[in-house]
Amino acid sequence: MPPDVRFATETAEGVTLVRFDHRATRNALDRARRASFVELLREVDADPGVRVVVITGTDPAFTSGVDAKQLLEPSYEPLPVDPATALRSLSTPTIAAVNGACVSGGLEIALACSLIVASERATFADTHAVLGLTPGWGLSVGLPAAIGPWRARQLSLTGQPIDAETAHRWGLVNEVVSHESVVARARELAAAIARLDPRSVAHAERLYRDGHEAVYGPARMCRTRRRARRSRVGRRSAASRTHQTWMVACSSADQIIFIKLDKFRSEGGALVLDFREPESVTSLRAQLRALIAEHIPHGFLGAFTANPEDFALTEAFSRELGRRNLLTAAWPREFGGACADVWEQTAVREEMWAAHEPRGAQYMGVNWVGPAIMRYGTPEQQARHLPAIAVGEVVWCQGFSEPGAGSDLPALRTRATKVDGGWSITGQKVWTSYARMAQWCFLLARTGAPGERKAGITVFLLEMDQPGVEVRPIPAMLGEHHLNEVYFDNAWVPDDEVLGEVGAGWDIVTEVLGYERIGIARYARSERLLREAPHALGERWHDLPGSLRERWAAALVRARQARLLAYRLVGDEAANLSPLSAAAYRIVVTTLDQEAAEVLMEMLGHRAVCATEASSFFEREVEDHWRYSQSATVASGTLEMNKQTIAKSLERA
């Protein structure tokens, strides 16, 4: 057996410690390591001096499970005996000292042990479903037996990790101890067991294991879509074979992100993940950056300032994008788009947000107002509104929140009364961004009785420049135009500007809110600012405390995790974006905004807090980013409401 697949072991006083020791792969178990582990267990079982086995991992993971990439290889063959079955076959008790991430195959190994002691940093996850696998090694029996069928389903169907305290509360682990003492505590328990009569111990083990004698087969692929180009003779070429599956990206013991990667590629006879962007996306990024450099002056911090020239600049830039079919690149051609794929549209989102959104307020019309009109609008509404959005000639605002109806949006009270030829709107909206510059409002109003809540809401496309519409700015640290109140006093909407069916607006707004939450690539600006920090600080970078640089590195990792999570959701957009996914993404990117802002502000200190026009551009950027990030966990649904959405979705799962 090659030395790199062996395991660190030590035996003392009848207790053998086995350590998964492959830090570079987060202790992942490829086929060779699984075979080595099974062989090692046989050797331990044959040693009469071994009374108890303790299994742990090298920090920061217990084990991240099977190397899923190997399961895709055509030549892959499962082992005759899997590690969990080998563990259950031992004549000696086993204790899992879970020191970090315990994922899928790692969870199967832990469940095959007699006891589980968890570090406070431990996390547990079953990623089989999101990886496209059916669970093997007895997990489908062992997990429900440990925590009950409902919680087992929650873990398996969502793939979301739970922390050590939750695992203990659910009955998955026996004890939770400090990270430093997890192995010592496992050894202490092992020593106590080792002092008992071995016949009594063996009998007790058999009694508990008899209830788990189900079929324990190897994991197998159950949902891998394979796509390939055909050769001239109509046979699939091995070099062109691509696969689509889910993989796991872990950055620390308490951070697990699942990402969808479009393909593997063959390199030197091995399958490797293909992270490369398509050439069309790379080319588009270069084009966008050149346009920004040409049309947007250095020092630009967004359209929403006290200087009207900043807004005028973004309007001109949006029209330039419109002329090049780049403002609505992913839209169909008949609506003014270029039929670009979702990845090209994602590149547009990222490049724009990283550069302080030189499209100004246009992203609202581009990202969700226009798509909502495409999906629910009449041909007349599409012809009236979509071309103007596509060329950057119109600004939309959003009339959703009200006093008393923010997070609880179905409680809105703005009233739409049917009159001859249309509707009369009366009520108030609050926190309405861009209302002073908008020509149109995507408005929610009540057409049913107040008690109907969601069933009595209708979407109206309301023209802002009319009697009966009054906009009042709300001063805020965010800057100009971000917050406004809008009052409607018998404002007019004709019948042909009702979007969808009367009373069916909640279905529309539910979809709209999902795309609003993922339509902004917030991570792109956070990542850019974090990457630029060492260069911007120069020699001062080396004087920063080591702990602050560690926080900077952690924030940068989380920014890249957020990017990968966004890519997963982008891949799902064409199918159906669930409220759970949109809410989870919103939590990740808004908390990232605040984390990055805090780290950068601490690095710059008073230079950012007291930033003026005379300060460096980076210092002004950080100060602007910090101010804007403070509202991130409130806007578009509070952090608490997004968590509630996730909880309700999991409850229904």
Tell me the major beta sheet: 6 strands, mixed
User: From the helix content, strand content and strand pairing, which structural class follows?
Assistant: alpha/beta
CATH class (first level) name of the largest domain: Alpha Beta
Which architecture of the largest domain would the CATH scheme give at its second level? Alpha-Beta Complex
How many structural units, i.e. domains?
A: 4
Number of helices: 22
Beta-strand level of the residues, as a percent range? 15-25%
Residue runs with pLDDT of under 50 for 5 or more positions: 210-264
Question: What would you say this structure looks like, in words?
Answer:
The protein is α/β, with parallel strands linked by helices and 653 residues long. The protein has 4 domains: 3-221, 2-enoyl-CoA Hydratase, Chain A, domain 1; 279-390, Butyryl-Coa Dehydrogenase, subunit A, domain 1 (Orthogonal Bundle); 396-512, Butyryl-CoA Dehydrogenase, subunit A, domain 2 (Beta Barrel), CATH 2.40.110; 521-652, Butyryl-CoA Dehydrogenase, subunit A, domain 3, CATH 1.20.140.10. The chain is built from 22 helices and 25 strands. Strand 2, helix 1 and strand 3 (52-57) form a beta-alpha-beta unit. The longest helix has 28 residues, at 546-573. It is elongated and about 90 Å long. Residues 210-264 have low confidence and may be disordered.
